[in-house]
Amino acid sequence: MLGAFVSELPVLPTSLLPADGRFGAGPSRVRPDQVTALVRAGSNLLGTSHRQAPVRHLVGGIREGLAEFFDLPDGYDIILGLGGASTFWDSAAFSLVRRRAQHLSFGEFGSKFAQVTDRAPHLEPSDILRAEPGTRPAGPEPREGIDVYAWPQNETSTGVIMDVARPVGTDADALTVIDATSAAGGMYVDASQTDVYYFSPQKNFGSDGGIWFAAVSPAALERISEISRSDRWIPDVLSLATAVENARKNQTYNTPALAGLVMLDQQVRWLNDNGGMTWAAGHTRTTSSLVYDWAERTPSATPFVTDPAHRSPVVCTIDFDDTVDTARILSVLRANGVVDVDPYRKLGRNQLRIATFASVPEADVEALLACIDWTLENALS
C-alpha cells in the first residue's frame, strides 16, 4: 500500500532537485568526506581499544580542533562524555549546580533542562523564566542564591536564538551554562562569556549523537572539583569530575562509538580549514537568509519567529496559512528524496523546519525552495 501511495505523488523536475536532499535539524547530513574518513578508519581504528594510543590520539585531535574553532581563552578545557546533551543535563544537576539554577525556557530543550534541575531532590526548585514558542525571555534575571544561569543559544524546536553574554549583577561565583547543541559549529560565540558551552555533535558537526562535548572555564572546573569533594552522591557515569579526569587523558570513562568520533574529527578539520567559526557563522547567516527572504515574499508563508533579530541562522521555522497542506508538501518532497523538513512534533503547527547547518551549501537551499515553490503551484490541488 505504501508503494502505491508514493507512486501517486507528483515527480519533481530533476532540474530542481538539490544535490543532497537532507535538511534535517538533527541528525544532520553527513558530508561524503566524512564517510570516506570512516572507510579509512575501518581498516585500522574501528574495533580497537579506546584506551590505546590511536584512539586517544583521535580524541586529542578533536579536543585541540574544537579549542581552535572556539578560540578558547587560556585555562578553558574541552571535556567530553557519553550520552548526549540530554545526559549532560543530569550531569550538570549533579556536578555544576550547587544549590539553585535559573533557566530561560522558550522551547522544548530549554524546558527539559529546567525540569531536570527543578526535580533534582538535592537542589532547591529552579527559577524558570518562560516565554511562548517563537519568542524568548528578555534575558536572565540575576537573583541572590542563583549559582547557575542556563539557556539554549539556539532553541532547536522553534528556531529562536538567545544572546550569549554573562548576566550582570549575579553572585560573584555564578556560572553561565549554555546549551549549544544546534548552535555550536554554525553560530558565533565568545567563549569567554560562558563557563560551560556544551553540545552533541549531530548538528553542525555532522556526526552521530550519543556523546557530548563542553568548553569549560576555570571557574566551572573549580565548581566541578568542589562538588566532587562534597558529600553529594554522584554516579560515576554522570560525574563531570570523572569526565574531566578522563578527558585530560584523551579518553572517556566508558566505551565511545568510534565511528562518530572519526566523523567529528573530519568535520572539525574541515571547518577550521575553511575559516573556522567566522566562516561557519557567515555561511549559515547567508543560507538561512535565503529561507527567511523567501518566506517574506511568499504570500502563503511567514517566518514563525516574528522578530528578525531572534531568528535562528541554523534552524529556520516557516509557518503556512490554512490554505496550504504542509503534510502534502512533506509527502511530495520525501517521495522525491528531499527529507526531514518536518516541524517539531510537539508544536503542532502548519509549518516546515529547515536546517541550514554548516554542511548545507547555498545551492542546495536554493534548490529546496524551488522544490517547495513547484509543489505549492503544482501539487496541492
From TrEMBL:
Listed EC numbers: 2.6.1.52
Family matches, as SUPFAM superfamilies: PLP-dependent transferases
Keywords for this protein: Amino-acid biosynthesis, Aminotransferase, Cytoplasm, Pyridoxal phosphate, Pyridoxine biosynthesis, Serine biosynthesis, Transferase
Residue span(s) of domain Aminotransferase class V: 148-338
Coiled-coil blocks: none
A Pfam cross-reference name: Aminotran_5
Catalytic activity: O-phospho-L-serine + 2-oxoglutarate = 3-phosphooxypyruvate + L-glutamate; 4-(phosphooxy)-L-threonine + 2-oxoglutarate = (R)-3-hydroxy-2-oxo-4-phosphooxybutanoate + L-glutamate
Cofactor: pyridoxal 5'-phosphate
Transferase among keywords: yes
Pathway noted in the entry: Amino-acid biosynthesis; L-serine biosynthesis; L-serine from 3-phospho-D-glycerate: step 2/3
InterPro entries per UniProt: Aminotrans_V_dom, Pser_aminoTfrase, Pser_aminoTfrase_mycobac, PyrdxlP-dep_Trfase, PyrdxlP-dep_Trfase_major, PyrdxlP-dep_Trfase_small
Main function: Catalyzes the reversible conversion of 3-phosphohydroxypyruvate to phosphoserine and of 3-hydroxy-2-oxo-4-phosphonooxybutanoate to phosphohydroxythreonine.
PANTHER family linked: ALANINE--GLYOXYLATE AMINOTRANSFERASE (PTHR21152:SF40), AMINOTRANSFERASE CLASS V (PTHR21152)
Family: Belongs to the class-V pyridoxal-phosphate-dependent aminotransferase family. SerC subfamily.
Protein name per Swiss-Prot or TrEMBL: phosphoserine transaminase
Organism: Kocuria gwangalliensis
Gene from which the chain derives: serC
